[in-house]
């Protein structure tokens, strides 16, 4: 119930105004978001890399309805990627891109524009010596995102994508993508989805995650286990027993279970942290609150006690 309300609020302009205008929100947002600009993102990247973890950077923004804004997002990624190369981080830091931030929802030729914009980011990533992973948004975008992935991989075979275990289609998508050279980031899924397309029950989502993980770990691709769930991490560890350590990785979000991130890295696992930055933090922040009721209490407590 609370999850649904928060996810509905994540797409409400009125609530967005309220949350963003509250000056006391900022310190709480900082737990999940690196900072507003490239300098903050690069500084956080340096801190994360220092203890042996890897990074993927997300320039925050989504649901763009403006072509200029979409192009601005591409430029932000280009600047970031040049900077990552300059400071020598590009071998351990890649970028994550939401296609809706680069034009997928534009009323005219959205998909074509998103493909061209994503291609520009891939060119910049390639020049920097790193790669791109396409985030996955709500289920109405899955086919379009996977089509764009296929197009990009023709020229940039290291481009990866996210699949969401809560979608009923995902086990088949995993089979389709479990081939050599294919990078798949498997997560549970963070959007409010209808029962027709998505499992609603937490246990069913977890079971689907395990089925998908089995397909990916048995395949020839590069599975990226994106979860903070201790049970799923233990299962991934067992399923990966036959694999070399550099043929898969664990991934978690910035600010969530950092000690576990460090533990996994210290044990010799490849552990990547998803680091979001930028001032368009609202949708991302609300999804983090929705994932864990305790975060709402944390948020409210911070508002009250400051
Ligand atoms: P859960 O059962 O939600 O959590 C397990 C445990 O992890 C909790 O008990 C708690 O201890 C901790 N935890 C989880 N979430 C939080 C939180 N917000 N705050 C504090 N503690 C928490 N979703 C998409 O739909 N599309 C994407 O492209 C996408 N990309 C992602 C990339 C990465 C690298 C990661 C890690 C997640 C991504 N997600 C994405 C989000 C994902 O779908 C889940 O919503 C999120 O990871 C929570 O699920 P969980 O597997 O951690 O399990």
From TrEMBL:
Pathway: Amino-acid degradation; L-proline degradation into L-glutamate; L-glutamate from L-proline: step 1/2. Binds 1 FAD per subunit. Gene3D superfamilies: 3.20.20.220. It catalyses: L-proline + a quinone = (S)-1-pyrroline-5-carboxylate + a quinol + H(+). Substrate binds at residues 98, 287-288. It comes from the Bacteria. GO terms for molecular function: nucleotide binding; proline dehydrogenase activity. Residues 49-298 form the Proline dehydrogenase domain. The keyword Electron transport does not apply. FAD binds at residues 136, 164, 188-190, 202, 227-228. Its EC number is 1.5.5.2. Keywords: FAD, Flavoprotein, Nucleotide-binding, Oxidoreductase, Proline metabolism. This is proline dehydrogenase. It comes from Saccharothrix violaceirubra.
């Amino acid at each position: 119930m609370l999850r649904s309300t928060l996810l509905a609020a994540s797409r409400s302009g009125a609530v967005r105004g309220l949350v963003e205008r509250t000056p006391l929100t900022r310190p709480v947002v900082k737990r999940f978001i690196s900072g507003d600009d490239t300098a903050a993102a690069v500084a956080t990247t340096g801190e994360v890399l220092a203890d042996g973890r890897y990074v993927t950077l997300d320039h925050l923004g989504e649901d763009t309805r403006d072509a200029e804004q979409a192009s601005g997002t591409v430029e932000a990624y280009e600047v970031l990627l040049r900077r990552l190369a300059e400071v020598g981080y590009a071998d351990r830091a890649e970028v994550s891109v939401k296609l809706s931030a680069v034009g997928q929802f534009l009323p005219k030729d959205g998909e074509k524009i998103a493909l061209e914009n994503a291609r520009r980011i891939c060119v910049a990533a390639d020049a920097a010596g790193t790669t791109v992973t396409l985030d996955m948004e709500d289920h109405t975008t899955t086919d379009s995102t996977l089509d764009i992935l296929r197009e990009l991989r023709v020229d940039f075979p290291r481009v990866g994508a996210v699949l969401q275990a809560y979608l009923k289609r995902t086990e088949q998508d995993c089979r389709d993508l479990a081939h050599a050279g294919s990078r798949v980031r498997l997560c549970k899924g963070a959007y409010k989805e209808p029962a027709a397309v998505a499992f609603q029950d937490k246990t069913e989502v977890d079971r689907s995650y395990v089925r998908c993980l089995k397909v990916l770990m048995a395949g020839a691709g590069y599975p990226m286990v994106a979860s903070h769930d201790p049970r799923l991490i233990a299962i991934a560890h067992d399923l990966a027993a036959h694999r070399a350590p550099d043929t898969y990785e664990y991934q978690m979000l910035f600010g969530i279970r950092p000690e576990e991130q460090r533990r996994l890295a210290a044990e010799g696992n490849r552990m990547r942290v998803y680091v979001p930055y930028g001032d368009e933090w609202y949708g991302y922040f609300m999804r983090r609150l929705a994932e864990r009721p305790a975060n709402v209490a944390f948020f409210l407590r911070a508002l009250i006690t400051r």
